[in-house]
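Subgroup meeting minutes
Present: P.N., E.W., G.H.
Scribe: E.W.

1. P.N. recapped why we're keeping a running log of single-chain structure predictions: easier to compare across weeks, and new members can see raw inputs and outputs side by side.
2. G.H. added today's entry (96 aa).
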Amino acid sequence: MIRFAVNGPQGPRIITIPRWAQGLALVLAGFAGVALLILGAGLALVAIPVLVGFGLFARWRLKKMMAEMQAQAQASQDRPPPGVIDVEYRVIDDRR
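Output recorded in log:
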């Protein structure tokens, strides 16, 4: 038998737990462990596909945004900044 020291209002005392109570506690702890395992597996069966789907959606959106940003950057490189007049010129007089 397992003995515990308990501090009560009348002072410390020793209590013992019978074998059947120990067995019952062990069985209940086992059931709780199995229930948590089943709950965790069920949650994983739902959460993992949702997270994978969210990740694929986020990746698709990120690729789309990056393509738009690259196109915008390319377009801004092709034209001069505001206030700059871009012209072509030829030297007519070569005497210098």
